Amino acid sequence: MRVNTNMSSIAALLVATSSRAVTAFSSRSVGPARALTARHMSTGPMPYDEDKMPIYALGMNIGMQISQQTDFKNLLEDAEMEILLAGFTDVVKGENTANPMEVLQKYGPAVNNLLR
What we know:
This protein has 116 residues and is mainly α. The protein has helices at 5-17, 19-24, 32-43, 53-69, 72-75, 78-93, 100-115.
């Protein structure tokens, strides 16, 4: 696998700058989601080939950090989770024509109400 240098830098930055990122890779229990994932993976094959697992692990790390802030599993329906992931993907890939700051300014109060 050829890993993009920027991807490696982002992963290193996430791990180095976030105390939560460090705990995501430690042996300490992070919560029920981590325990379920560990049990599933320990009894069966990994969800991706070995060369893709670091990318999957990065996604899990980001997901764990976000999940520690809000209980999205119980907050959002499946269709709403897909919309959330579409917003994340658009920003990360830079593919959306909307300015993220303008969207946040307009819908920020509704986001705050949703998270309460």
